[in-house]
Amino acid sequence: MTSPTNTAPKKSSDWHPHHRRIHEPLSWQAMALNLTLKATIKPVLAHVKVSQRSIWLAERLYNLTAPLMSALPSHVDIHSIEFNHFTGEWVRSGNSLDENKVLLYLHGGGYFFSSAALHRPITWRLSLACKRPVLAINYRMAPAFQFRHWLEDAVTAYTHLIERGFKPHNILVAGDSAGGNLVLVLMQSLRHQGLPLPTACICLSPWTDITGSSDSMRSNKNHDPMFASRAVSSVGRFVSQGVDPEHPWVSPARADLSGFPPLMIMVGSTEVLRDDALRVAERARAMGVPVVYEEWHAMPHVFPLFAAFVPEARKAYQHIARFVREIERHRGDYDHH
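User: That's the sequence. What structure does it adopt?
Assistant: Structure tokens below.
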């Protein structure tokens, strides 16, 4: 399905993409979070069968965290936006944003639950770190919709930004977990359509192999503080009904990533999805894409979500800000549009 219309990025003489394992002593907050997740979330996910009823229950339980997860500082401004088939919100954090720049955010949740609002702990911090407004969308999800629907919504949001006058070199695209999957699928679709690609992508704990074939699904099954491998595989089978789970537009760990913009990929070392992230990083780098891959010691899935109380998560946004500054500094060295 892919038909690249963009050349691979050219390597800069002073660009330093890296493969980094961040192995520092865990903060007590991170240790407490991991213990809490292992005692509460992981046992439930390990034994609940994915069904219409369990999806309904997951949504209700997750929504109970909304008062905590969506609490906002006074400097954050939220404005709703409506599209034909979905909604979204503009998130602005701080007073020194460059309104000529933007970040499109695609939230995680296994393609069957969560929302832009529940990912505000990430989006407002990204706005602050990247010094630009963030457009976060509520794309259509399973079980009522399938891969083509959430991809259509991501494409619609991206082209909306282009139509509003944002230049591709001023657009970042980011996502976590299933949203990280959607970021990589979106890049393939834009490339296939001959549309200009954004300046860079950021993937937090991306879910890139819906078949559950990554080695860490087995090697980390007892170490992941949040996810049981069985649960991830079950969700994969559920959301990929009606499509080929091995297709690169479903599982981008198998994709042709040539011509992609620079990637930043963050993941925890003990995640069952660690190798989903690592495989994409290695595959992209082999195809000439500049990649910053960071594997954080013993951090849980999408750990930047917990920045309110985990210092390592707050530090992650400093790394993201540094990545964005480097991209902007060396933008002329790449020809991926």
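Residues 19-328 form a domain with the Rossmann fold fold (CATH 3.40.50.1820).
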